[in-house]
Amino acid sequence: MAETIEKVSIIISRGSLEGVYPGLIMANGARMEGIEASLFFTFFGLEAVIKKRMDELKVATVGNPAMHIPTMVGALPGMSSFATRMMKKEMEKLDIPPVGEFLTMIHDTGAPMYACRATVDMFHLKKDDFCPEIDGVISVGQFYEMAAGGQIIFT
Description:
The protein is an alpha/beta fold. The chain has helices spanning 17-32, 71-74, 79-93, 99-108, 117-122, 140-147; strands at 7-12, 36-41, 113-116, 136-138, 151-154. It has a single domain (8-59, 97-154), classed as DsrEFH-like (Hypothetical Protein Ychn, Chain: A, 3-Layer(aba) Sandwich), CATH 3.40.1260.
């Protein structure tokens, strides 16, 4: 019989729309299945939890082979905004909430959320820059302690 997952810690390191949502969807799914989940935002993944930027995330159209468009086309002015609008429209049809609302929903299920201390320091950010769902700014060592005994998922 397969062993069941009881705990996951999800690392979000990319700040594009398609970089943030997989981690949020995984965390939400875990909580809905009764699995303990936490989120750790690092490097550009912090974009998802910075109050002034979280609702402005865009789809990366350049350097994204999964877009199936030539780099030259992806670099055209307005292409990222167009792709972002299209993706948001499709997510709306599936009842997937905007980033800020999704973070609140996940946090309200008891999933703690943390910002990476090294990245926060490197980008000269302060606790006040983050949405209220961020429970703290922690080191990688603290993250590993908190994640002990669970699965680490890197998105």
